[in-house]
């Protein structure tokens, strides 16, 4: 009888132990924690991170684009101011040599235009290097100067071609025709060429403090 009662007592204790919530449960508890924790983690990393990246990337790109546009506008304004003063030097010296009181180079419009253009180019080189592109100048100033004067030689060639065309093909030899050929048509074409050549070829050094 004692053995039977002991066996019945142990049998009665086993279901109670299995049903006891305080008993250590490794698998259900672990599974419950694993299933509950990764879901919030994944939801925090994927949707939250993506939302933050998308929200921050758009303003950054728009700001960088705005800064680039402002830099282009600022560069063009400074380039235009230097070009305007160089234009005054060029046109004034040309008319002084060709149609001035002394008329040193009267009857030689191409020579007068060449001398005036070279003088204006020297002024433009100094002004652009020290002001417009002062943060993008090269360490090798000689190479930069060669490229700069090459660009201006091309601009002079454009003006020379326009002047030759009006003189020898159209037959316009008046002072008004000379100025329109050189300082309206030729200047506009040469300025556009020089601006892009300066930006992409000549002044491409790193930004300096």
Question: Could you characterize what this model shows?
Answer:
By secondary structure, this protein is mostly helical. Helices cover 82% and strands 0% of the residues. It has 6 helices and no strands. It is elongated. It starts with a helix and ends in a 7-residue tail after the last helix. Residues 15-19, 29-36 and 38-61 have low confidence and may be disordered.
Keywords:
209 residues, mainly alpha, 6 helices, 82% helix
Write a brief caption for the model.
This protein has helices spanning 2-19, 27-36, 38-99, 109-132, 141-170, 175-202. By secondary structure, it is mainly α.
Query: What would you report as the Rg, rounded to the nearest angstrom?
Result: 41 Å
Average pLDDT score: 74
Described by the principal axes of the CA atoms, the overall outline is: elongated
Low-confidence parts lasting 5 or more residues at pLDDT below 50? 15-19, 29-36, 38-61
Strand content: under 5%
How does the major sheet shape up?
none
Derived from helix and strand composition plus strand pairing, the structural class reads mainly alpha
- The helix content is over 70%
Q: From N to C, what is the helix and strand string?
A: HHHHHH
The count of β-strands is 0
Number of helical segments? 6
For this structure, the quaternary state is single chain
Q: Separation of termini?
A: 101 Å
Provide the fold topology.
Layout: H1 2-19, H2 27-36, H3 38-99, H4 109-132, H5 141-170, H6 175-202
Helix pairs in contact: 3-4, 3-6, 4-5, 5-6
């Amino acid at each position: 009888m004692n053995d039977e009662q002991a066996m019945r007592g142990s049998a009665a204790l086993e279901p109670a132990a299995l049903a006891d919530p305080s008993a250590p449960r490794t698998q259900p508890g672990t599974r419950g924690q694993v299933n509950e924790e990764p879901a919030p983690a994944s939801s925090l990393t994927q949707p939250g991170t993506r939302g933050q990246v998308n929200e921050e990337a758009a303003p950054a790109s728009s700001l960088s684009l705005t800064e680039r546009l402002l830099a282009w506008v600022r560069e063009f304004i400074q380039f235009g101011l230097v070009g305007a003063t160089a234009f005054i030097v060029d046109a004034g010296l040309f008319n002084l040599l060709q149609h001035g009181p002394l008329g040193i180079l009267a009857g030689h419009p191409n020579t007068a235009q060449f001398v005036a253009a070279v003088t204006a180019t020297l002024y433009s080189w100094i002004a652009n290097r020290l002001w417009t592109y002062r943060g993008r100048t090269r360490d090798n100033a000689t190479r930069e100067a060669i490229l700069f004067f090459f660009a201006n030689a091309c601009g002079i060639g454009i003006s020379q071609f326009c002047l030759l065309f009006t003189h020898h093909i159209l037959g316009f030899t008046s002072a008004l025709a000379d100025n329109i050929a050189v300082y309206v048509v030729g200047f506009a074409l040469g300025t556009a060429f020089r601006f892009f050549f300066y930006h992409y070829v000549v002044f491409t050094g790193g930004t300096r403090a």
